[in-house]
Design brief:
five-stranded parallel β-sheet, Rossmann fold, OB fold (Dihydrolipoamide Acetyltransferase, E2P), alpha/beta, globular, five-stranded antiparallel β-sheet, 6 helices
Length: about 260
């Protein structure tokens, strides 16, 4: 079985690869891709795999964008950080959806569905292809109608509500997510940065990289950096290497100019 993995988090891709090899030792991981752009280029120049594991949120956009450029007939198991109850809305034409971090039992069940529904077929018809419109509609169902007004943080034995307008930026560090306040304090929160991105107003905050999501008022200075990137100086940040990812520079500039 030839398997393609589309996942932009190295740790997640490594974990998934290990699990696949555990349950399907004979499987060949033919490629690991981390972006919409690379996925489209790969699909245009390679024969289709037998099975695809596809993350929803990639480095340069949503994986649904891949379907807009190439025709995919291979069965797909999506992986996502979205709430496990909302995932049920997605189970339309794909084999399955797996919630991160991927559970061994859930992966085994998903692979079982692959063997049941696809491997017995000599040809996989277009009816097996996930319906992009339905998937996008389902994704929209998960978007909040109202953005979060505050985040709850724990300080020792105490709980405090931090208003969103008092937050300068969010950042990831050592597998944890933090918010930085206008008072110069930072607190750990219970949400991964990928989830925070969908909880706050995109007009107010911008995801500049995998590590940072910033508010305009948090930016003290913007400096042209090497390889077309931008370097930011943020208020109340000790990090001297806050960079806008190369693939996000153009959209970041558009966000600044809105």
């Amino acid at each position: 079985m030839k398997i393609l993995i589309i996942e932009d988090e190295k740790a997640a891709a490594k974990h998934l690869t290990a699990l696949v090899r555990q349950f399907v030792p004979e499987a060949e991981i033919i490629a690991q891709l981390d972006s919409v752009k690379r996925s489209v280029e790969w699909w245009q120049n390679n024969p289709p795999p037998d099975l695809v594991f596809m993350d929803i949120q990639l480095a340069d956009g949503l994986s649904f964008e891949i379907f807009e450029h190439v025709s995919i007939t291979a069965p797909i198991i999506f992986t996502t950080a979205y709430d496990q109850y909302a995932i049920q809305a997605f189970k339309v034409n794909s084999i399955d959806y797996l919630l991160k971090p991927i559970d061994e039992e859930e992966l085994e069940k998903a692979l079982g569905k692959y063997y049941s529904y696809y491997q017995k077929q000599a040809d996989i018809t277009t009816s097996s292809v996930p319906d992009l419109t339905q998937l996008q509609q389902a994704l929209q169902m998960l978007q909040p109608t109202e953005y979060k007004n505050r985040f709850i943080v724990k300080i020792g034995e105490h709980i405090k509500a931090i208003p969103t307008e008092a937050i300068l930026f969010f950042f990831s560090q050592a597998k944890a997510t933090y918010l930085q306040t206008t008072e110069g304090k930072h607190y750990i929160i219970d949400y991964p940065l990928d989830q925070v991105e969908h909880m706050i107003d995109p007009a107010q905050f911008f995801r500049i990289s995998r590590k940072y999501m910033v508010r305009l008022s948090a930016i003290d200075d913007i400096i042209t950096y090497s390889s077309g990137r931008l370097k930011l100086h943020l208020k109340h940040s000790k990090d001297s290497d806050v960079l806008v990812s190369r693939d996000r520079v153009s959209t970041f500039k558009a966000w600044l100019d809105q």
